[in-house]
Amino acid sequence: MPRLDHEAQLTDLRAQLAAVAMVRRTDCLDACERANVIVIQPSAEGRRAGGRPVWLGQVNDPGAAADIAAWVRDGGPGLAEAPGILDLYTFSPSRRVRHELED
Question: Which of 17, 48, 52, 67 has the fewest CB atoms within 10 Å distance of its CB?
């Protein structure tokens, strides 16, 4: 598999989601062995509907990034069903990391 162009992936996600979501970069989410890690935070409406952050790891495939972007455009956690393929990328971070992110 060719080396992932991280900058291109970030630029592409920002472009695809510019109208509906903020895409932020961070140095480490304490899950480096699962890089690239993407955390999808629910919108305020999605949180009220029961949505919680979804952690996706090893997102190194352009198709997976496109599926994530489509899901977020459809409403994301709490408002839209995630594409089934994303089950392959979903993981649960440590309680400490989840707590830090949610604060």
Answer: 48
